[in-house]
Structures are given as C-alpha cells and as structure tokens.
Amino acid sequence: MIPIAFSPDVIDARETGKPIVALESTIITHGMPHPQNVETATLVEKTVRENGAVPATIAVMNGTLHIGLTSAELDQLAQAKGVAKLSRADLATCIATGGTGATTVAATMIAARFAGIHVFATGGIGGVHRGAEETFDISADLQELAQTPVTVVAAGAKAILDLSKTLEVLETLGVPVIAFGQSKLPAFWSRNSDLKAPLRMDTSADIARAHLMRQALDLPGGQLVANPIPEADEIPNEKILPLIEKALAEAHRLGLSGKAVTPFLLQRIFELTDGASLKANTALVLNNARLAAKIAHELMTQTA
Ligand code: PSU
Ligand code: MN
C-alpha cells in the first residue's frame, strides 16, 4: 500500500473523466525563489484550468504521495526548508521514511503514470551537462523518458546543458523529441537553438495521436514535446550565454556535483540576470501548461 492522497479536484476529474495535467514540484522548491515560486505555480494551475484540464501538482509531503495539491499545501511546500529533491532513485525511500520531497521530471513521470495521467507540463527537463565526458552528469530525466509512457511538454533544455549531447542520448534511448510548430529545437530562454529538432508537429491533435500510437504499439517510454517560449518573452542568447558561463565556472570552482548542480545554476542565473531569467521561465511554463492541457483534452476526445 502506498500512502497516496488525491486533491479534491483530481478526485472529481477522475470520477467524471476530465483531462488531467501533471505538474512537477522541484521547479517550486529548487527552481525558483519564494514567493515567485508559489505565484508561478498558482498561475500555472490556473492556466491548465482555463484550457480545459485539471492540474495535478505532484509532491511527497510527510510520507504521502500527493497527486494534486490544495492551495494551502502548495503554499506550505513553497516555503518549506530542506525539502528533498526526488528523482527515480529516491522517490520510494522518501515515501517509506515519511519524508518530504519535491519531484523532478523523472519522479513526476513515475507518479503521473501510477495515477493514470498521460500528460505533464514543466519548464525545462534535465539533460546531459556540459563536460559530461568528464563528470558523467546526465540527468535521470532522460532514462525516465525512455521507460515511462507520459508525454512531457517542456521548452527544450537550458544552455546550462549540452544540447546536442542531450539530443544524441535521447535518440539512443528512442525518445521522440517533437518541436511544436517549428523545425528548430527550442532552447528554453530562446525560441531557437542552432539544432534541427528530430521531429516536428503543428497541432495538439497530432501529438495526442502519436501518444496513442505508441500505446497501441506497446512501446515503453514517453514523448518529449519542445514548445518554444513566446516571442515577446525571449531572452537573446548573446545576453544570457556569458552569464551561464559565469555560473558554470562558479559551480566548477565550488566542486559541485550530483543533485546540487542544477539548483545552484538556476539560482545563480536568476541573480546574474536580476530576475529576468525568472520572468522568462514563468512565461514559458505557462505556455507549456496551455499546450499540455490541449494535448490532454485531445487524448480524451480521441479515446472517447
Ligand atoms: N531545468 C530547469 N528548471 C528546473 C529543472 C531543470 O530549467 O527546475 C529541475 C527539474 O525538476 C528537472 C531537474 O527534472 O531540475 C533535473 O535535475 P538534475 O539535473 O539534477 O537531474
Ligand atoms: Mn545531474
């Protein structure tokens, strides 16, 4: 028996067959500072609702796996200190020992699949870090996409990562990487990278059909939808790249490794851009929530 708690909204959605979109919580506890984290999380949930789906933010609180948080729980998590960052390796141990932890993309996918949720919106996924040939730092998110059947909507991957190595690993793992509405791979703060996306789709209906086709073929693993940040919210590469380099050099000097790397870089880039990175981050998560809700809606329609 797993101690699991569904929020009242998610219980209702499951009973009445409404589309549900999963949301991660590491972006709240380790990706953004307070109070912008809870403001953004609340806006993301609202955006999912406005686009015809029910949000299910996922986290472990005091040993209970939550599928959907009430606003009081969201508030509590956003202010909590010392929250663990949970990936595939530590989700079960956290629940088993009564701990509190926020779920990364990998752990959110596991929980979503367990709860029968097929679509998940986030900001950026983890990937192959720059210098991975030395450090072996490759996010467990990539393996998860290879084995857990959830469609993940993200804005591509940040330039704190090595984008082309990330694409190569995803190709090896057999993960479809689908750029939405364009041919180039989006690069998080910028609409375009210099890389061509392996696949392109222009409608949520096509993405839903592809998800169902993988299911019909009995293929394990999910799909990564790379949704470009809205034009008005882009940060030009030439502005952000030098700041990323600076943050990376600091992380290197501090000898950071493992789970600490990504949160440190996100926090430093926030500081170095005077908060501009956070504004863009919020805009792109909302944009992903919109698309994810449409895909979840399409999945319902096509299976009705
Ligand atoms: N990338 C972002 N924002 C984030 C993360 C990644 O742009 O908040 C978080 C996600 O939860 C992702 C995790 O799953 O970091 C990846 O961490 P790691 O690199 O340690 O696997
Ligand atoms: Mn890592």
TrEMBL record:
Substrate binds at residues 85, 105, 139-141. Coiled coil: none annotated. Keywords: Glycosidase, Hydrolase, Lyase, Manganese, Metal-binding. InterPro entries: Indigdn_synthA-like (IPR022830), PsuG (IPR007342). It catalyses: D-ribose 5-phosphate + uracil = psi-UMP + H2O. Mn(2+) binds at residue 137. The active site is at residues 24, 158. Pfam families: Indigoidine_A (PF04227). It comes from the Bacteria. Its cofactor is Mn(2+). GO terms for molecular function: hydrolase activity, acting on glycosyl bonds. It is an enzyme of class 4 (lyase). Binds 1 Mn(2+) ion per subunit. Its EC number is 4.2.1.70. Homotrimer. Catalyzes the reversible cleavage of pseudouridine 5'-phosphate (PsiMP) to ribose 5-phosphate and uracil. Functions biologically in the cleavage direction, as part of a pseudouridine degradation pathway. Belongs to the pseudouridine-5'-phosphate glycosidase family. This is Pseudouridine-5'-phosphate glycosidase. The gene is psuG.
